[in-house]
Design brief:
Residues 281-374 form the DUF2314 domain. This protein is 26% helix and 29% strand. By secondary structure, the chain is of the alpha+beta class.
């Protein structure tokens, strides 16, 4: 299955000897094509086939209305003179493995040529820096799928939200019906969570009642079955979406899922400013002792030190402040250096696992865990005071 196109700005292939040297590892078997225009990679249980097509006239057209990407990515695409087609066998015991082998092949090619990556299943453009982050940082399903909202009916809940991009993991895309505008962020959070499970081959069994991480119940039913009791949605709504989906429905098989999304809506409720300010004052008061205790932490102590700070994200060109948690890794002249525990909710500007540095004055909450359990406020104060010099 063709999953990626790497559009490059030169009119010919990367020299095979250069590629042979780049792929010369014990983990990868590099086999060039006889014509020198492509090659195959065999790694573990996955195969990646790479074929080159020369000539901008053969490059497919990618509409900005359909594909997401930065203006710079579309500019690179416009300068392309050839493109590598990357194909994998989707699925298998580790469905993410073939996808990441293909991405590593793209990253290696980009060490030799200028280009932009097209995810043909998720309708996304990725610049070279994006590819580096995707391959190095923790898995974020938002790098691999695109959620599409379509007005399917009239009324208060007219939206049909569905994913694109899951087929490269050997899974069907997901869909959910009868949502309101105010449900979109909650639906995105829920669908991303479910898509992640499916991408790792850990999705729920079909037609079986299962629970979310928040305790709500639902079922996944093949779309050709679930849509039979879908009322008020004209058939032309599905033009251009003829593929098979998995529909999210209630345990009774109905398309009323508002209650299912209720806990996810709470994630997007804005924290009262008074609460944020109070937490900031308390965190700043404890921060010197907190960081001092972090620096005294023994190598075998099962303690994790976490701080929260504001980060700017820019969904749809707007600036939104999100408070994100990071695991403290070091202290550096008035700054805290750490690794993000979770990525930003609204965009992938701040990815889970990214190393960041924040000014100590920006820290607005603290937490300590011991062997995975978060200590309560009294336990934290006792820990910080236990070794305080007299």
């Amino acid at each position: 299955m063709e999953v990626y196109l790497l559009a490059i700005e030169q009119a010919g292939p990367v020299p095979l000897e250069a590629l042979r040297a780049s792929f010369a590892t014990d983990d990868v078997e590099f086999t060039p094509d006889e014509d020198g225009q492509g090659f195959s990679l065999k790694a573990d249980s996955s195969d990646v086939l790479v074929r080159l097509t020369v000539g901008a006239e053969h490059l497919p057209r990618f509409s900005k209305e359909v594909f997401s990407g930065s203006p710079e990515a579309f500019e690179r695409l416009g300068r392309s003179k050839a493109f590598y087609r990357l194909s994998v066998e989707p699925g298998g015991p580790q469905p993410t493995l073939p996808v990441f082998e293909a991405l590593w092949a793209v990253r290696t090619l980009l060490e030799h040529v200028q280009g932009v990556l097209v995810d043909v299943t998720a309708f996304k453009l990725h610049e070279p820096d994006d590819v580096v982050e995707i391959t190095e940082l923790d898995f974020d399903i938002r790098d691999h799928v695109h959620l599409h909202a379509v007005q399917a009916t009239e009324g208060d809940t007219p939206l049909w939200v569905h994913s694109h991009g899951m087929e490269k993991f050997g899974a069907r895309d997901l869909e959910i019906f009868h949502l309101a505008e105010g449900d979109l962020l909650a639906a995105e959070s829920f669908l991303h969570e479910l898509c992640t499970d499916l991408a790792f081959g850990q999705g729920p069994a079909l037609r079986t009642q299962v629970g979310t991480s928040e305790g709500q119940t639902f079922m996944l039913v093949p779309s050709e079955e679930a849509r039979t009791n879908l009322l008020g949605v004209p058939l032309e709504t599905f033009e251009g979406h003829e593929g098979l989906f998995l529909s999210v429905v209630s345990p009774l098989g109905r398309h009323n899922t508002s209650q299912l999304l209720a806990p996810y809506r709470e994630r997007f409720e804005k924290e009262p400013e008074e609460q944020t300010q109070a937490m900031h004052r308390e965190a700043q008061a404890l921060l010197p002792a907190f960081l001092a205790r972090f620096q005294r932490k023994g190598l075998m102590e099962p303690l994790t030190f976490l701080v929260r700070a504001p980060f700017d994200t820019h969904p749809d060109g707007n600036t939104v402040v999100e408070n994100l948690w990071l695991e403290v890794m070091a202290r550096d002249e008035g700054s805290v250096v750490g690794k993000l525990v979770d990525g930003a909710v609204h965009t992938t500007e701040w990815r889970k696992g990214a190393h960041v540095e924040v000014d100590e004055t920006q820290v607005n909450a603290l937490a300590i865990t011991r062997e995975g359990r978060t200590l309560d406020e009294q336990e934290i104060r006792a820990l910080l005071n236990a070794e305080r010099p007299m």
